[in-house]
Amino acid sequence: MTFLAAGKVNYRSRIERAQLLAERLPFAREILGVYAEIARYQRDFYERLPKRWGKPAVAPAGDNLRSALNMTILLEPFGRFLSLIEPQIPGPLAACSRRLKTEGETAWATTLTQFWRSGLVERASAEPLTEFLARAFLQPYAEFVMGAMLPPALPMTVCRCPRCNSLPLLGVLRPEGDGGKRFLQCSFCSQEWEFRRIFCAHCGEDKEEKLPVYLAEQFPHIRVETCETCKYFLRTIDLTKDGNAIPIVDDLAAVPLSLWAEENGYTRIQSNLLGT
């Protein structure tokens, strides 16, 4: 089984794709605008991490991504993140950011540690607003640490990230030969791992007649892969149809597909950062 090798994350491409889709899709313009602001901060944080980290090894002992955070390099940037993000996000989130900012570094350390240990392992969160802030802030940190780790051995198809045990965010079809190879992308660290084409990423159903796939004319490169056994769905970005797509960004823009799936009784395995 293939574990897609991690390279340097290109936040510039993510931002540019968000801007392009915002021009094409007016209904997603506000959402993509919020994401672009978040991604600008993430890009700055990600690019500064090597210098801030210094000489200690980045790869955690035992290749456990969810081992202890390097808190000494996180607290000051997290406070700055809360200040910068507050004007860009809706009212309830902005209020949560203000409250957390006033609670100080002890509360920040607790928030970040709790998310790092257990965030996105389950679908629901007891504190979704706080989780949003921790998730948006720690995503580039997780991608940075993951990029320093060796690929794990993958003896079989797994429905959770082999690196951090998180639920998959989406599927990706990457060109191979005359077709495409299917990968799942992690909702926590963004790593991709190979996954069977005819297989539910939630319950493991493998009967093709139980796994209908739906397409919409508006998004010909995005598949809604459903399961009639567990009633969960996964969105898959088909790069064989649009090689310019950036999966994590194109997924944010596909708001109508989520609405359709929910109206038809399907639940997403794991939501994206903005819940679209």
Description:
It is a single chain. Strands 1, 2, 3, 4, 5, 6 and 7 form a seven-stranded mixed beta sheet that branches. The protein is globular. The chain is 41% helix and 15% strand. Helix 2 (29-53) runs antiparallel to helix 3, helix 2 crosses helix 6 (128-146) and helix 5 (105-118) crosses helix 6 (128-146). The protein has helices at residues 11-24, 29-53, 75-85, 91-103, 105-118, 128-146, 247-253, 255-263; strands at residues 168-176, 179-186, 192-194, 213-216, 219-226, 232-238, 267-268. It folds into two domains: 11-146, no CATH class; 168-268, no CATH class. 38% of the residues are buried.
β content, as a range?
A: 5-15%
Number of helices: 8
Listing every helix as H and every strand as E from the N terminus to the C terminus, the arrangement reads HHHHHHEEEEEEHHE
Average pLDDT over all residues:
92
Q: What's the count of strands?
A: 7
Q: How many independent structural domains?
A: 2
The structure class reads alpha/beta
Reported for the largest beta sheet, the result is: 7 strands, mixed
